[in-house]
Structures are given as C-alpha cells and as structure tokens.
Amino acid sequence: MRQLLSKRKVYTKLFLFYCFIALVGLISNSLLLALLIFTVALLLWHYHHLFLMDKWLWRDRKLSPPISEGIWGHLFEGIYYLQRRDRRKKRELRNIVRRFRDGAEALPEAVVVLTDDWSIIWSNKLAQILVGLHWPADEGQRLDNLIRHPDFLQYLKHAKFEQPLELASPVNDQLTLEFNIMSYGAEQYLLIVRDITQLKQLEQIRKDFVANVSHELRTPLTVLQGYLEVMDDEHLPDKAMWKKAHNVMLDQTKRMDSLVQQLLTLSRIEASARVQFEPIVDVPVMLHQLEQEAQTLNREKQHSIRFDIDDSLKVTGVTEELRSAFSNLVTNAIKYTPAGGEISVSWQRQHLKAVFAVNDNGEGIAAHHVKRLTERFYRVDQARARNTGGTGLGLAIVKHVLSRHNSRLMIFSEPGKGSSFSFSIPAELVLGQKTKNRGEKPL
Ligand code: ADP
To answer: Ligand 1 mean position to 415 CA, how many Å?
Structure first.
C-alpha cells in the first residue's frame, strides 16, 4: 500500500519556506516583494507540472511518468501505479475474453451472444456456416433482421425458450438445426444452434424400419387370419379348398419365419462389432453344398447353373456369415432370372485376392435402383419380390458381412440383359498366400 501525502509535512515545509523568504525579505528590506516573487515562482512551478502531466497523459502516452520530486512526484507515481494496474486488468480481461471465445469456437455448435433487443454482440465461426451470421461484420445488427424465417420470428416474439425450435438452415436447406436461447449474464442472451440433421435421419431410418417390419409381418398374418376366419366349425373347407389354403398358409408362415431369421441375422451382425475370425473357412466345401441346394431350388425354373470353384481357395473369416452372403447372392440370381436362364457362379483367385461372382442373364436392374439395393427392405419391384418370398433384407446382410471381411459388394446390371454381383476377399484374409497366411502352410 502506498503512503498518503502527509498534510502536516507539506504545510510545515511550505511554512518554513515562507519563513525563510520572509527572513531574506526582512534582511534585504523588501519583505513584500520577496513574498510576492516566491508566491509567483511557486505558482509557476505548479503550472509547469500541470503542463508536464498534460503532456504525459495526452501527448506522450508513455507509461513511465515525468521525473519529478515532491508533491508532483508523488502524484505522478500514483497515476503511474493506477495506469499499470489498469493495463494489467485489461490484459487479464482480454485473456478471459480470448479464452471464452476460444472455448466457444471449439464448441460443435453455433454460438451467438445477443443483447436483450436481439442485437448481435458476438458470434463464432460455426454461426457463419450454419446460419450465415458474419462476425464482426454483423456486430450490432438485429438477429431478427438477419434470420427472417416466420417460425423463428414467432419464437423470438413469444420468448418461450424452454422448448428448442427446429428449423431448416437459412443457408443450406439440407441441414436441420435446433435453436436454443437462454438468458446469459446481465440482460444478455445466448443463442446456441445445433446441427441435428444426422439425428433426424437416424430417427427417420428407425421409424421406417419399424414401419417396414410391421408391414412385412402384417401381410402374411392378414392372409393367415383371413383363412382362419372363414374356417370356423360350421364352414370347414372341402379337400381341394383345404389343400390350396394349406399351401398358402404354409408359404406365408415360411415367409414370416424367413423374415424373422433374416432380422435376427442382421441384428446379430450389427450387434457384434468385433467377432472372432475362424482360422480356416473352407469356402470350396461350402460352395459345393450351396451348388446342391441351388439345384434343388432350381427345379421349377430349370436354369442352367454353372459353378466354377477353385478347390484350394480358403479364407479366414466367419463361416456362417460368409455362407449367408454366398447363399443370398446365388438365391437371388435364381429368384430374379426368368425360367431357363443362365447363371454362373465363380470362386477364383485373382492376383492375391479371392473373388466371388454370380452372373445371370435375368431381368437386370435399372441404375437408379442399383445404389439403393443394399438398404434394408429395398426392392426393385415390391410385389414381385414378395411373391418370390423375398424379405428385402438379403443384400443388407451381404453388405454387413462383407464390410466385416474388409470387402464391398460390386453390382453391375443392365435392364433386360442381366446382373453381376461380386466381391473380393482381400489378400490378408486369403489363406495359402506367401505373405501373412493365417493358420495354413503356404501352397
Ligand atoms: P429380397 O429378399 O427381396 O430378394 P434382397 O435384399 O436380396 O431382397 O434384394 C433386394 C432387391 O434387389 C430384390 O428385391 C430385387 O428386386 C433385386 N435383386 C437382387 N438380386 C437380383 C438379381 N440377381 N437380378 C435382379 N434383381 C435382383
């Protein structure tokens, strides 16, 4: 703590000066003149220091004070001390503001600080990307002049900020934003805008999924219910009718069963992010079994089905999942190729990879459908796919299985000419390679 000026000391000093001057005046016989000269000199000295202070504060703008003694030295030192404290406080304040802004910039949300009449005080960079606010260009602008959406204006007007507001972004209508306003400090508001596009999409996917599953299950149930309702005690069907009804009911039950099985497979694959790979998956044996099954399935349509299998080509992976992928692709080719078609299935080594391909000369698929085929429940022709007993989940399962085996499904198709579904198992999962083999000796 600095010492205050001692009034007593100052007045004593002044008094002693005057005494001395008076003495000099008495000796030189000009007392009044001596006192006058001293008073004027004192006044000039004070004025000189006032000008020094004026120059220091307004012209030099230096921190260090003019060199001076006595009362003025004491005052200069006091002002110097206050200025230093002021600068330090400003620096601290600047750091706090910078830290706040850095924090707000790092947030994954757009942040806008507003006055209580909705004028912009500050906004972060994300506010520019999500809502098109520019800082510092928009500083002082009213928010309701910059975001003109009627729902937003109503939201500001009613000031019921407990509930957030959902709106399309004013700069990109593909984005869905959530606006939250909260009071912040004295008569200020904080607007926080969150991009919830992905959340909305996921919610939509979930809703679609539930709707699709319910729809798919309800269809066979309605058929069963219809038959059961007409077959009460009094109206038992005749033999021919019963045979037909029995077949239809059996088909529908099988359809429900396969839907539930496929759903279970899908959820099992999705639920277990990491699974233990079996060291050897004997794909050739698996494909020979599949060939037998395909021939059984093919009895009705009499396609010519050719399997071309490299019997030495084994991989590491998840047997049941791979079986499901191979089987889905072969079954689809049989299902979606008109009777008497040609189907070829191959499992061959290509460079260091193992390539599986199913080609058919069936109905083919238009390009705009191809990119959506692996979505759950997506079918090119809903009615026909259902008639073939399809669930719309087969290719979704294939996609998941392949991604787990570091592979991707490739689809080439031309309407009217046929389709080719293929994928390649990467070298690191193929056994018998000279490098990185897992469990088997190199060939
Ligand atoms: P589904 O159980 O309906 O067969 P998938 O997911 O296996 O479901 O197949 C999705 C859709 O892709 C099918 O409904 C069908 O329209 C089309 N599709 C699949 N494979 C073929 C193919 N080989 N030829 C023509 N269309 C096909």
So the answer is: 13
